[in-house]
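step 4 of 6: structure.
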Amino acid sequence: MSEIETYLGQLRSHLTDLDARRADEIVAEARTHLESRAAQLRAGGMSEDEVNAEAVRTFGDSALVAGRLRQGNQHHSRPHSLRALAALAVSLATAFSLAMLLPGVVGPQRGGSLVQAVQSATNLDLSGALYALGAVAFVIGFVPAALLAGFIGGRRHWWLAAVPGVLWACVSVPLVLLYAAARVWLPYALLIPVLASLAFAALGWFGGRLAEKGRGARNVPWLCALYALCLGTVGLQRVWHSLESFAITAVVLQPAALVALALAHRDGRLSRTEFSRLFCGVAAVALLAAGAVALILGIVGGIPVVGDDVYFWLAVACAESILALFGLPVWRLVRPQAEGAAPALEGTSTRGGR
Amino acid sequence: MRRDTQLLKGTVRLLILRLLDGEPMYGYQMIQHLKECSEGYFQLGEGALYPLLHEMEGQGFLRARWRDQESGRGRRYYHLTARGRKELAQRLETWQGFTRAVDLVLEASHV
């Protein structure tokens, strides 16, 4: 890799606070400048190594230049509050889901089948050890979420990954104190959440560092969409018997997926054609699935376990799909200039900046 | 000749607006043009020029557009907006008033 490319990579890594598309555009502009400067120096008789070194030197220190560029491009800054909110949502939603799924964290009624199976197999009373078992399972289960929350939070908000651990410590100590029989567990009730908080913070920091390095931060919308899909799938499996939950999941996940695609297109990671295909594909699949379920229910003539609300949610899912399918061409008609600008950029140096 | 960087900082926006009043230009071209026109006096650093151009773009004084080149790479050309022209007129007026006042004082001090 030439010195210019290395320099541009460093410059790009310092611009993660900016909108990804804008940052790529800045790097592309810097590339054309450096190449022009290098060509001029080359014509003056300098060697290739000297040319690259001199071009980079006159452009200035990458961190310093990036700092100035961030100042000059504040109108293109990523909304930090949204990133913080997304990191917090990932942390708390995962913690809540784990607390509901794992045994012993909120009580033996959750994960009851696992507890009953272990109890019947070992013939032991697990009520005391259940807390420790649930706590360890919670910490292990939360590791990917802490990394992801730190990744989304980035340099400024990586610490949000530790919030569930801190809340856990704040909540568990008074709860243990309330029950005399559980006081023997007090050191663990305090120690485990504190250690967990520290571990989550460390993982969050590591995730934040990963986001800073290279171009990872641009994948945040994809990661959020994937995460929502995973949570939705877990939720769906927990209530698999309910068609209503299927319809509600479709209603929630469909717009989330469409928004993620739109964000990816806006950031320049999807071309106009790719975006159109994926956008229409998602809407069409959701429409077909919801329509097919509604049709089958209509033909069968009603199933006793199906509530009346399922028709409402299926109708909402269909309406969303139809709105998306018809809304996209209408939006393009209304805003032809904004749409037309993207291919022009892609055809030149912006693409080359990636 | 000794260069006053503080004076340059105060006037560089005016110079950029004036440069772009004639024709759209890209960053490298602006640096070269300024250097040539001022006989080497204004040697604007790239690290200072682009942040300033982007800031002025954000303020609505400039608009940028990529144009393809025969060599294959595109260049980002900046051109003045209507708001930029107004800003240029105001800055020119301020500058001319300032230089006239300074000249008057300097001439009066000589007498």
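step 5 of 6: annotate
 - Residues 104-114, 337-354 of chain A have pLDDT under 50 and may be disordered.
 - Chain A has three domains: 3-76, 80-213, 218-352.
step 6 of 6: archive
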